[in-house]
Amino acid sequence: MILxxxxxxxxxxRALETYEQSVFPGEPSLLRxxxxxAEALLTALLCDLEHYANHxxxxxxxxxxxxxxxxxxxxxxxxxxxxxxxxxxxRQTGRCGTIIGWTNxxxxxxPDYLVEVPGVPFVYAESxxxxxxxxxxxxxxxxxxxxTHANQAEQTYTSITAQLxxxxxxxxxxxxHDRHRLLDALNxxxxxxxxxxxxxxxxxxxxxxxSTSRPQRPKVASADTSSNVGxxxxxxxxxxxxxxxxxxxxxxxxxxx
Length: 257
Known about the structure:
Elements: H1 2-23, H2 35-55, H3 60-76, E1 86-89, E2 96-103, E3 112-116, E4 123-127, E5 131-133, E6 140-142, E7 145-147, H4 150-164, H5 171-190, H6 194-201
Antiparallel strand pairs: 1-2, 1-5, 2-3, 3-4, 6-7
């Protein structure tokens, strides 16, 4: 189960944090902030564990092999994610995003889930083993209603930005405050900088006559996100822009078995 996997990761994190404090007593933890540091710390722990195993006559290689086999079985038994689920990408410095589909390279293979991260111009393809449930998106009050989902926040931000040029004070100032709140919420949840988010979510200049209109991405179904922003902005998942998986992947139209 996905929840069980999250519990396993939590236990492992606590073990690494305890080991880190024994190696660097009194120092602030860097475990959650630097992937290279975390890898080096894990390597050091494994090295010490091998010393422990050798000292006590334990077959370390066998223990590692058995642990890896159990991990493979646990990963295969994980419950599938669904479109609209908010997840954390464990191999991408903890970035968070929304599942928009999946792909199977072979019928018997585990699916790679296609994850859209706010402000990132492409889609990640990750197996369930490299995903974890994301923390809830921080509820964000705006003048248009309560925003409770990342895709909803992206759509609301884009819509507000498009309105600003034709909006007079004091409404304009109120909408600017809404934009700042939405950017802060997206930044804290996704791990993407506010500058990158602003650049990605600001609509392009309106097309002049004779120019080609910007293609729209398909809508993405998402649970529990369509009812909170009210009539001012009807919720649709955020515009994908030019986000696309690698050429070797393609989104399936039906969930994996």
